[in-house]
């Protein structure tokens, strides 16, 4: 055995993009032994009988083969589940994160930009920057509504290729005014851009844009099975007018959805009633949590249409650490944006988890 030749070490400083070198990797918090309420996961697992049934199905798959036409069964099942209108098509991503990246790649023409309200989902800005596109973040109002005048002015000024509207938004968990959304969609349409409505939290939301999407030829609807209950499986889907999806689909890696991923997702959709009842339970828990949080002295909680609640406390860093010591992991979003000063984002968990979360929060204020 000889030692590796030191002269062959790659010159990372030269090889790796300067902007990538100065980036921080996406931080995933260590959650071992914690009540995990930091990432909007569904706290429920499959019932034991379904676990066994799924195991058999996965075990029998041809893992030696590349993913095949079965992927189309999943595309059709998701289109049915979502109520996709005529004339639309659907493409799948390895989580919607991948689709957000593919959208930036497909729209990477010189001078292109991507716009989204802020605070919002971090991947919109991240995907733009990684692709070398300009990202324009437009601040929400202090109560997390769309700033109509600022949004329309930014759209007129920058003519973004893609405008993202998360409906409901992450991390603020609210839906936005439909009349303002319609004005934004029309303004983007008038200058030839695309709007992506991101409905990651649709299973918990009182509204969806799906019924209005057929009115437009420049609006895409992005969804995921992650918050539904399959965060570990990685399936996102993008629906839009056929011609538009056909173009974006060209930049998708051919085998981006594994055999295991699509079979799991099909299985879950066959048992959609199980997941629907989990979502109903979480919505009921959300109401209980909101009532308890609103009654807690020193805490401000915002109304939610998702499986998370944004709260403001007197000292977010102190409360976050206190909760962590009490084995409850939430997300400290207070440094993400000035509008989120002293805010924590709490995922809605099971009834027992929520009771422990509330106790930990109250003791950590
Ligand atoms: C969680 C989330 C996603 C990404 O979900 P995937 O797990 O990548 O499918 C997309 N958009 C928003 C707003 C989210 O909160």
Tell me what you see in this structure.
The chain is globular. It has a seven-stranded mixed sheet, with helices on both faces. A four-stranded antiparallel sheet has the order 9-10-13-12, covered by helices on one side. Strand 9 (300-301) and strand 10 form a beta hairpin. Helices cover 41% and strands 16% of the residues. The protein has 365 residues and is an alpha/beta fold. Helix 4 runs parallel beside helix 11 and helix 5 crosses helix 6 (122-130). The N and C termini lie far apart (58 Å). The chain binds pyridoxal-5'-phosphate (PLP). Residues 95-97, 121, 166, 170, 198, 200, 224, 226, 231, 236 line the site of pyridoxal-5'-phosphate (PLP).
What shape does the CA trace take?
globular
What hetero molecules are bound to the protein chains? pyridoxal-5'-phosphate
Structure classification? alpha/beta
Low-confidence stretches: none
**Mean pLDDT over all positions:** 96
Find the count of extended strands (DSSP E, 2+ residues): 13
Number of helices: 14
Radius of gyration equals: 22 Å
Name the beta content range.
Answer: 15-25%
> Can you write the helix and strand succession as a string?
HHEHHEHEHEHEHEEHEHHHEEHEEEH
Helix amount, in percent?
Answer: 40-55%
- The largest sheet has its strands arranged as 2-8-7-6-5-3-4
Kindly, what is the distance between the CA atoms of the first and last residues, rounded to a whole number of angstroms? 58 Å
Summarize the biggest pleated sheet.
Answer: 7 strands, mixed
């Amino acid at each position: 055995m000889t030692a590796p030749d030191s002269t062959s070490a790659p010159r990372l400083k030269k090889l790796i993009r300067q902007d990538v070198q100065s980036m921080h990797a996406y931080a995933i918090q260590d959650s071992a032994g914690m009540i995990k309420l930091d990432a909007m996961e569904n706290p429920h697992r499959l019932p034991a009988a379904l676990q066994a049934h799924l195991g058999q199905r996965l075990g029998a798959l041809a893992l030696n083969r590349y993913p095949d036409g079965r992927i189309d069964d999943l595309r059709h099942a998701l289109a049915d589940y979502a109520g996709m209108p005529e004339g639309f098509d659907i493409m799948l991503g390895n989580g919607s994160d991948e689709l957000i990246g593919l959208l930036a790649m497909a729209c990477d023409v010189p001078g292109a930009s991507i716009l989204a309200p802020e605070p919002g989902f971090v991947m919109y800005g991240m995907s733009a920057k990684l692709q070398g596109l300009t990202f324009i973040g437009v601040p929400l109002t202090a109560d997390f509504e769309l700033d109509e005048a600022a949004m329309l002015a930014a759209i007129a000024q920058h003519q973004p290729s893609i405008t993202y509207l998360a409906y409901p938004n992450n991390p603020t968990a609210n839906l936005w005014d439909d009349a303002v959304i319609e004005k934004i969609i029309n303004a983007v349409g008038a200058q030839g851009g695309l709007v992506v409505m991101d409905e990651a939290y649709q299973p918990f939301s009182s509204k969806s844009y799906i019924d209005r999407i057929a009115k437009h030829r420049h609006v895409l609807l992005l969804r995921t099975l992650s918050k539904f209950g399959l965060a570990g499986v990685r399936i996102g889907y993008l629906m839009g007018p056929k011609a538009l999806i056909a173009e974006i689909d060209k930049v998708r890696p051919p085998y981006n959805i594994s055999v295991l991923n699509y079979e799991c997702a099909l299985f879950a959709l066959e048992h959609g009633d199980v997941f629907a009842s989990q979502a109903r339970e979480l919505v009921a828990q959300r109401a209980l949590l909101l009532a308890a949080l609103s009654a807690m002295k020193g805490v401000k909680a915002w109304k939610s249409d998702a499986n998370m609640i944004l709260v403001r406390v007197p000292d977010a860093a102190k409360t976050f650490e206190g909760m962590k010591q009490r084995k409850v992991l939430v997300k400290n979003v207070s440094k993400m944006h000035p509008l989120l000063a002293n805010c924590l984002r709490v995922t809605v968990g099971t009834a027992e988890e929520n009771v422990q979360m509330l106790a930990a929060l109250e003791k950590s204020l």
